[in-house]
Amino acid sequence: VHLNQRRNSESIIWTVEEQKNQPYPPYLETVCRFKPPTEKCQDDNNDYCTIRWSLSMNEMHDKPCDVISRSSIDGNDWYFAHINITDSSSNEMTRYHVEFLPRYAIRLINRKYTKDQYSRGVFREVIGLPDGLFPDHWMDLKEDDERYIYQD
User: Fold this and answer.
1) What is residue 16's DSSP assignment?
2) CA angle 54, 110, 106 (to 5 degrees)
3) Cα(41)–Cα(22) distance, integer angstroms
4) CA 116 to CA 110: how far, in whole Å?
5) Which of 41, 44, 54, 129 has its CA 20 to 30 A from that of 118?
6) Are 32 and 105 in contact (CB under 8 A)?
7) Is 45 helix (H, G, I), strand (E, B) or coil?
8) What does the alpha-carbon distance between residue 26 and residue 143 come to, in Å, rounded to a whole number?
9) 97-128 pLDDT per residue, tens
10) Cβ-contact 97, 49 below 8 angstroms
């Protein structure tokens, strides 16, 4: 199956076990839209806090995740994932086992710094703009204003 089809929001996401035979390219990672609960986890079975997924529309809740299993119920695929979240204030990590994630809550994205713009040794060219392209009233930079002087 072509990679663009894998990124389709209706395609099946491979589990960690399935990726052993058919891994995603190294520049992709799986993220799950998951908002951790505000209260401390009460269920700490096997080092994971087991929790049922709840709807979140905020992209800030996209967290790297490992899809552990998939189950089809009445024609709908439901996913089970492990998500590790570190509290920025206490530096304490909580490991979640999230149950019943719908397919639309899981995406394949480019890993950080893997796009072409971050490649070393690639051709880059300064793009110059011709004089007179912008109106004069946009060009009101005062040459003696030190805040705007570019320092090498």
Assistant:
1) H
2) 20
3) 34
4) 11
5) 129
6) yes
7) strand
8) 48
9) 999 999 999 999 999 888 888 888 887 788 88
10) yes
Structure tokens at 19: 């990726």
Tens of pLDDT along 34-78?
998 888 776 656 688 999 999 988 888 999 999 999 999 998 899
Torsion angle, alpha carbons of 102, 104, 109, 112, to 10 = -70
> Do the beta carbons of residue 67 and residue 16 sit within 8 Å?
yes
Q: CB neighbours of 79 closer than 8 A, spacing ≥ 6?
A: 13, 32, 67, 69, 70, 71, 100, 101, 102, 103, 105, 106
Q: Which residue type sits at 45?
A: N
Angle formed at CA 41 by CA 40 and CA 44, multiple of 5 degrees? 145
> Rg of the chain's alpha carbons, rounded to an integer?
23
Q: Which residues contact 82 (CB under 8 A, 6 or more apart)?
A: 48, 65, 66, 68, 95, 96, 97, 98
| Whole-number Cα distances in Å, 98 to 32, 142, 145, 149, 151 | 10, 57, 56, 52, 51
Q: Quick count: other Cβ atoms within 10 Å of Cβ 7?
A: 14
Quote the pTM value.
0.70
